[in-house]
Amino acid sequence: MGVAATSADQSILAVYREWVRKMSKTKRRDFGTGTDVAESDAERLSVCLTVNGQVCSQTVEPRTTLLEALRVALDLTGTKRGCDRGECGACTVHVDGRRVLSCVTLAAMQEGKRITTIEGLTRDGELRPIQAAFIEYDGFQCGFCTSGQIMSGVAVIEEAKAGWPSAATADVTKPFALADLSKAEIRERMSGNLCRCACYPNIVDAITEAAGRH
Question: Does the reported pTM lie above 0.70?
Answer without folding.
Answer: yes
